[in-house]
């Protein structure tokens, strides 16, 4: 009788195990699959997908907001046909648009609206990630504050998922230029 109970217990667990495997597979973002394929180490940080503000993400994760980077979309006003800009800056900083324009060699830049950012990237605000847009026509920039840390946290390409990886790896993978985008 005990053997039958053990077998029944195992059989009851198998669907749960398969379900968990399917869910784990679905939870991998394009950015994670890209990093896995290149054997680049990273740490996944999950949080409620209702949080869209990078400073709130830092608080939820118990991390220094200066180490959690948000990805913002900006547009060159003097060259509207040029590639949009993806600019990664610390959660506790704001882009200085004049500084950014100088750094990218533009007369002026402006922030894309939430609607424009989502339309241009195909990602929701709070989940916009340079790692998820690698083969798309964007000019990618990383604020120089990232150099203060060996690793930073950036969006994983989906609300509720951030990835922590080495700054040098992020620069190499995304082709990002290191600039001073904040005051």
UniProtKB/TrEMBL annotation:
It comes from the Bacteria. It is an enzyme of class 4 (lyase). Keywords: Lyase, Protein biosynthesis. One of its GO terms (molecular function) is aminoacyl-tRNA deacylase activity. Residues 51-172 form the YbaK/aminoacyl-tRNA synthetase-associated domain. Gene3D superfamilies: YbaK/aminoacyl-tRNA synthetase-associated domain. Pfam families: tRNA_edit (PF04073). GO terms for biological process: translation. Its EC number is 4.2.-.-. The keyword Zinc-finger does not apply. The keyword rRNA-binding does not apply. PANTHER family: CYS-TRNA(PRO)_CYS-TRNA(CYS) DEACYLASE YBAK (PTHR30411:SF0), CYTOPLASMIC PROTEIN (PTHR30411). Belongs to the prolyl-tRNA editing family. YbaK/EbsC subfamily. This is Cys-tRNA(Pro)/Cys-tRNA(Cys) deacylase. The lineage of its organism: Bacteria, Bacillati, Chloroflexota, Ktedonobacteria, Ktedonobacterales.
